[in-house]
Amino acid sequence: MKVAIYCRLSEEDRNKQFETDDSSSIQNQKAMLLQYAMEQGWELYNIYSDDDYTGSDRRRPEFNRLLKDAERHRFDIILCKTQSRFTRELELVEKYIHGFFPVWGIRFISIVDNADTANKGNKKSRQINGLVNEWYLEDMSENIRSVLTNRRKNGFHIGAFALYGYKKDPNQKGHLIIDEEAAAVVREVFTLFSQGYGKTAIARMLNDRGIPNPTEYKRLHGLRYKQPKTKNSTLWKYSAISDMLTNEIYIGNMVQGKYGSVSYKTKQNKPRPKSEWYIVEGTHEPIIDRELWNKVQALAAQRAKPFAAGTIGLFAGKARCANCGYTMRSSKSAPRRGSKHYLQCASRHAAKDACIGSFISVDRLERMVIDEINKLAGEYLDRDELEQNIEFCDSLQGQKKRLLSDMSVYKKKAADFSKGIRELYLDKVKGLISESDYVEMSKDFTAEHDRLERVTAEAEKQLAEIEEKIAAGDNRRQIIEQYTNLEHLNREIVEILIDHISVGKRIPGTRDVPIEIHWNF
After folding, report:
1. What's 99's DSSP letter?
2. For the CA atoms of the chain, what is the radius of gyration?
3. What's this model's pTM, rounded to 2 decimal places?
4. Can you give the pLDDT of all 521 residues of the chain as single tens digits?
């Protein structure tokens, strides 16, 4: 029998001397599991080891390599210290330990908590372990969130990366100190902008002098940095200059919490409103003095509205250069030439040969988009037939009301079953019920809880469909009128209809600019 050993070091028991060394915890796990495998007479296939990963992280590299090898049946047994070292998620326990592993012919064993898929009698205990581990994950996430929130409120830096111009203080955790080499560039950027230079002009000056952008600077100096997703990542861009000029960290204020996690089960983050940011003044030495900061903010506010006051550009964030993929920026011609608005590639002037550049007037792009919309409307829509075919069901509001009532009942019952499972576990721990009674009762509770969650999800889906039908029925005349025979666009129409527009380089010898519209439908 070939055995694969899987080890994982959780973040809370990290204990390293050097970054490249295995921790003592990993070493202890390996020693324990190798000894057990030797006593059983199994042949070692491989040791898979993930260090500094939580049990809820599904992106663990060795964990995923283990699963791929298991699917190819390159070994017969997976051996872990505990089931939680493999995963703390009940969903993955069911998916792999109770689902795929038996199909693939893989036996799973964890020696401390006596989990063994060859023993049919302890399946329920493995499920209970998974449930307890799931609760542990949720509680741990809340505890960590509480600690981090407290540190943010007290002005401690808790990010993985220090902002360009600063570095982490090796003598004081959560404190930033100035990185003089990078700080000199930051001061120059603020000074140049205060002297009237534009953001693109500043980016070009830095690129022409060969000064690496923040990501490249950190890479060259062996500092931690976030891997960029775009090409030309070594160049300074308009956006980098713009972000720098508005970041309060440069005046000594700690600003954190701009993004928040969606769930403790995923690394995905989403933007948070500024009212929920954590801003603490005077936490570290400033790079920019207040007088220069205030001057720059006043100048930035004056330049922030190239269109009419209080409005946003018609294609802002929607037009992209077909050559380099960067979002095109707006510009305005001199009043003597009619004050027309144009869109141009954001990297066109950032550096020599950075991009061949795309350029088009807003009026011309609007006309081209309108022509395409009207063309589509003419080909696919018959106004009279469309209006006749849209039937608004008077009973939709009644259906919506019933669904909302049913969903409320489903959610309450699901919460009651969740509470019941927890109370059962406590009763078992206190010895009020037997192990066998607990297993049977928790099985029924869990099954009913899962069923209620499924019907709630289905009801939510039906509710969304009904609300779409209600909206379409109430606004059918407006919808028909809005998107047929258009003469002008507005920002609302652009947002609804268009995902983005790819703008190419003008065809030599003509006035034609190729565009490709990516619709939202």
Report:
1. I
2. 30
3. 0.43
4. 999 999 988 655 554 444 445 555 788 788 888 988 998 999 999 999 988 777 777 888 999 999 999 999 999 999 998 888 888 787 788 889 888 998 999 999 988 777 888 887 666 665 666 566 566 556 656 666 677 778 888 888 887 788 999 999 999 988 999 999 999 999 999 999 888 788 888 888 898 888 999 988 888 887 766 655 555 567 888 888 989 999 999 999 999 888 776 555 555 667 788 888 889 999 999 999 999 999 999 888 766 544 443 345 788 778 888 877 777 877 776 555 556 788 888 666 666 566 667 888 888 898 898 888 887 776 665 545 544 444 444 456 767 777 788 788 878 887 877 787 777 777 777 777 777 777 777 777 777 777 778 778 877 877 887 777 666 554 444 544 566 677 788 877 787 788 889 888 888 888 888 988 887 76
Within 10 angstroms of residue 296's Cβ, the number of other Cβ atoms is 20
First to last CA, the chain: 55
Please give the structure tokens belonging to residue 197: 């230079």
Q: 3-state DSSP call for residue 334?
A: coil
391 Cβ contact partners less than 8 Å away, ≥ 6 residues apart: 473
Q: What angle do CA 338, 339, 342 make, to 5 degrees?
A: 115
**Residue 347 to residue 477: CA distance in whole angstroms:** 43
Rounded to whole angstroms, the Cα distance separating 242 from 256 reads: 18
